[in-house]
Amino acid sequence: MSTQHTESERTAGESEERIDSAWTNYEFEGDAKISATDVNVHYGEEHALKNIDLDIPEKSVTALIGPSGCGKSTFLRCLNRMNDRIKSARVDGSVELDGEEIYQDGVNLVELRKRVGMVFQQPNPFPKSIRDNVSYGPRKHGDIDTGLLSRLLGRGDDETEDELVERALRQAALWDEVSDRLDDNALGLSGGQQQRLCIARCLAVDPEVILMDEPASALDPIATAKIEDLIEDLAEDYTVVVVTHSMQQAARISDQTAVFLTGGELVEYGDTDQIFENPESQRVEDYITGKFG
Ligand SMILES: Nc1ncnc2c1ncn2[C@@H]1O[C@H](COP(=O)(O)OP(=O)(O)O)[C@@H](O)[C@H]1O
Ligand SMILES: [Mg+2]
């Protein structure tokens, strides 16, 4: 084992290996929904992500895996410019959504984050009713009209809102559990229900991409299984990018897997079966077989 890298740069047990760019060259049919090119992120002096090139196919599940601190969350936040909110963060490179650069002047960040929604590790519903949690986004974005359209269609505002709330809760596989208590406070739900509510809140504004950062890691196995089933269903209509520290979860739910390793490098990216059964990188194999991380 080489001593070129200090302990702090390598996870204990991780061997030295030159990265071959062919390992991240994943060919898929169709256009990329998201295309990241030469993305670098610094937090102050710390170089947290290095030269990431990653194309994400639409309507599928892409898993981002790797040991803690390797930059998975940082990369996820690049995809809807959430790092803009972190003062010390500097993002260089290009991220295109449907071929349009999101890091250019004039991009409306509210609109971007509506198209590219995010679900976090800790369910974070608002301390409001279940209904209000779902309708909050559309209200903010003005999708629930101020009455004119409803009057023209001969129906009330509430009906429009009710339809939207039901649609999003059904999509998030939560409707049957909450339909009789929509006005109850969301904080009274279980953790797993709260997380599905957060997914419903995200779906309510009609996103195209859903970013999920360890969405099940705070949940028990049954609630986790529900989230995993939901993720697979969502990928029929949405592009889902999910960070997980659970390799089993990545193997179960994703179509393609990107492996980040210590130092903020993308080491291998490919079909999930190939990554788990026949990785090209020795370090990825060591990681997957539990030799480090
Ligand atoms: N808000 C932040 N400010 C400063 N450094 C950060 C911040 N977020 C992450 N980092 C650093 O960037 C590196 C990657 O972190 P992160 O993206 O959270 O990794 P992961 O999600 O893979 O655990 C880590 O060294 C971490 O300490
Ligand atoms: Mg993280």
UniProtKB/TrEMBL annotation:
Transmembrane segments: none annotated. PROSITE patterns: ABC_TRANSPORTER_1, ABC_TRANSPORTER_2. GO terms for molecular function: ATP binding; ATP hydrolysis activity; phosphate transmembrane transporter activity. Pfam families: ABC_tran. InterPro entries: AAA+_ATPase (IPR003593), ABC_transporter-like_ATP-bd (IPR003439), ABC_transporter-like_CS (IPR017871), P-loop_NTPase (IPR027417), PstB-like (IPR005670). GO terms for biological process: phosphate ion transmembrane transport. Residues 34-288 form the ABC transporter domain. GO terms for cellular component: membrane. Keywords: ATP-binding, Cell membrane, Membrane, Nucleotide-binding, Transport. The keyword Manganese does not apply. Signal peptide: none annotated. The keyword Cytoplasm does not apply. This is Phosphate ABC transporter ATP-binding protein PstB. It comes from Salarchaeum japonicum.
